[in-house]
Amino acid sequence: MVPRLRPTVNNPRRNSRVETTVENCHCLQTDAAWGADTGLAGLGWTVQKNSERSEFGAHCYYVASPLVAEALAMREAVQKCRELGIQRLRCETDSGLLVKAITSRKPSPELYGIISDIVALISEFELIQFRWIPREKNKAADALAKKALRLETIVLNSILRGV
């Protein structure tokens, strides 16, 4: 069951309005892949407006759980959108728990710092929306996250073997 969530996070510093559907905006989709044995996470996200799509990937060490990895992916992606000068953003993820943590602004202790960073970034946007999407609609970000994890695992293994 998908939790009921607020559709939009308002920017308190600007006169942005609540919208159930965000028009004329960029669509951000994020995902993460986590290696339990290494604590390594691959982060992936896409940013799309109309027919133009950009793809991004990154990795993080010492990640405690898949949910923390999902939150890190969202934080990095929202930060990148801010750097790109995007003002209107619809953020989508297949993690209902993450969307609930952001929109309620009541995260679990393991997410507190990351969610606080995301909430601080919200003020940089004219309008920003966070929503859950099914995994089937998040395949591109999922593939980017898995690729980032796989590539960093190869690098890490090479270093550990002294190659």
UniProtKB/TrEMBL annotation:
Superkingdom of the source species: Eukaryota
UniProt-listed InterPro entries: RNase_H-like_dom_plant (IPR044730), RNase_H-like_EbsB-rel (IPR052929), RNaseH-like_sf (IPR012337), RNaseH_domain (IPR002156), RNaseH_sf (IPR036397)
Residues annotated as signal peptide: none
Protein name, as recorded: RNase H type-1 domain-containing protein
Organism: Brassica campestris (Field mustard)
Segments forming domain RNase H type-1: 30-148
GO MF term set: nucleic acid binding; RNA-DNA hybrid ribonuclease activity
